[in-house]
C-alpha cells in the first residue's frame, strides 16, 4: 500500500507538471520515485536526472487509531482480525536539475499542485494501473499537509541522506491503511448474558 500511495501521488503530480512542460513520449516523465540518498553514489545508473524526485524519509504510526475494533460480525458468527495499521508517510519532494532556475520552477509547480489538491482517492484521482492491481483500494484516502523543518532539522535530514541539499519540500501523507485481513479466530455471536445470581443450583 505504501508503493500504491506514492505511485498515485507521482502520477497525479506528473500529469500536472506535464501540462506546463510537455515531454513528448518520455516514459519517465517529470516525476520519479527514487531514493534521493543514492544520487551521489558513483555506480548509480542514470534515471533521476532533471526530474522531480519523490522519496520516503520516515514512517509514523497514527496512534489515535490504534484502538479500532478487531472483530467483525458475519452470517457464521464473529471473526477476529488484528486491527489495521494506519501510517503517516513523510514524503520528500526534491528538484534535481542542473539549472537552478529550472529546479525552483519545478518545485514551485509541485507546491502549487499539492496546495490546490491535498486529498486523493481513486474517485477524484482515477488511475487505470492501480485499478488493475489485486489490492482493495476503495477506502484509500490520502491527505497531504506541508511539514516545515527548522534549519537544524533540515541539516540533520540532508546529513542523514548523505547528499548535497537541493531545492525540496517535505509533506506528511496521512493516512495509509495497511491490513492483511487474516482471521485470527472465530466464535459465535453472543446474544444473551446470564449472571451467576440467576443460576439454580
Topology of helices and strands:
Layout: H1 2-20, E1 31-33, E2 51-61, E3 71-74, E4 77-81, E5 85-96, H2 100-116, E6 119-120, H3 128-131, E7 142-146, H4 151-161, E8 168-178, E9 183-187
Parallel strand pairs: 1-2
Antiparallel strand pairs: 2-5, 3-4, 4-9, 5-8, 6-7, 7-8
Describe this structure in words.
The protein is of the alpha+beta class. It has one domain. The protein has 4 helices and 9 strands. It has helices at residues 2-20, 100-116, 128-131, 151-161; strands at residues 31-33, 51-61, 71-74, 77-81, 85-96, 119-120, 142-146, 168-178, 183-187. The chain has a 6-stranded mixed β-sheet. A 3-stranded antiparallel β-sheet has the order 3-4-9, with no helix packed on it. A hairpin with a 2-residue loop joins strand 3 (71-74) and strand 4 (77-81). The protein is globular. The model has no long low-confidence stretch (mean pLDDT 81).
Number of helices, counting only DSSP H or I runs of 4 residues or more: 4
What is the gyration radius calculated from CA atoms? 23 Å
Q: What is the count of distinct domains?
A: 1
Arrangement of strands in the largest sheet: 1-2-5-8-7-6
- The averaged pLDDT comes out at 81
Runs in which pLDDT lies below 50 for 5 or more consecutive residues are none
- The percent of residues in helical segments reads 25-40%
Helix-strand string:
HEEEEEHEHEHEE
Amino acid at each position: 500500500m505504501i508503493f500504491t500511495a506514492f505511485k498515485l501521488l507521482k502520477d497525479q503530480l506528473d500529469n500536472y507538471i506535464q501540462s506546463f512542460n510537455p515531454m513528448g513520449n518520455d516514459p519517465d516523465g517529470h516525476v520519479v520515485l527514487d531514493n534521493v540518498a543514492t544520487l551521489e553514489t558513483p555506480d548509480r545508473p542514470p534515471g533521476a536526472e532533471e526530474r522531480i524526485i519523490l522519496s520516503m524519509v520516515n514512517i509514523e504510526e497514527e496512534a489515535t487509531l490504534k484502538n479500532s475494533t478487531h472483530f467483525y460480525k458475519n452470517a457464521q458468527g464473529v471473526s477476529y482480525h488484528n486491527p489495521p495499521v494506519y501510517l503517516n508517510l513523510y514524503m520528500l519532494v526534491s528538484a534535481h536539475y542542473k539549472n537552478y532556475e529550472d529546479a525552483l520552477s519545478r518545485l514551485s509547480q509541485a507546491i502549487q499542485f499539492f496546495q490546490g489538491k491535498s486529498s486523493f482517492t481513486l474517485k477524484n484521482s482515477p488511475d487505470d494501473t492501480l485499478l488493475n492491481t489485486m489490492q482493495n483500494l476503495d477506502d484509500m484516502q490520502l491527505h497531504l499537509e506541508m511539514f516545515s523543518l527548522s534549519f537544524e532539522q533540515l541539516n540533520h535530514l540532508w546529513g542523514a541522506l548523505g547528499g548535497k541539499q537541493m531545492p525540496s519540500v517535505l509533506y506528511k501523507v496521512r493516512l495509509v491503511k495497511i491490513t492483511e485481513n487474516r482471521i485470527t479466530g472465530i466464535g459465535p455471536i453472543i446474544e444473551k448474558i446470564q449472571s451467576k445470581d440467576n443460576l439454580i443450583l
